[in-house]
From TrEMBL:
InterPro entries: Entericidin
Species per Swiss-Prot/TrEMBL record: Sphingobium olei
Signal peptide: 1-19
Keywords in alphabetical order: Cell membrane, Lipoprotein, Membrane, Palmitate, Signal
The protein, known as: Entericidin A/B family lipoprotein
Protein family: Belongs to the EcnA/EcnB lipoprotein family.
Superkingdom: Bacteria
Length: 42
């Protein structure tokens, strides 16, 4: 039983870390696209 709980916690933690990296990467992409538009407008 404790092995199943530990496995579930590790899986959940891994997914949370992966999701944070994905959102951070998407935010950087949007930021760089916004900067490109801003530079083109100047």
């Amino acid at each position: 039983m404790t092995k199943k709980i530990l496995a579930a916690l590790l899986l959940t933690g891994s997914l949370m870390v992966a999701a944070c990296n994905t959102v951070e990467g998407a935010g950087k992409d949007v930021q760089s696209a916004g900067k490109a538009v801003e530079d083109a407008a100047d």
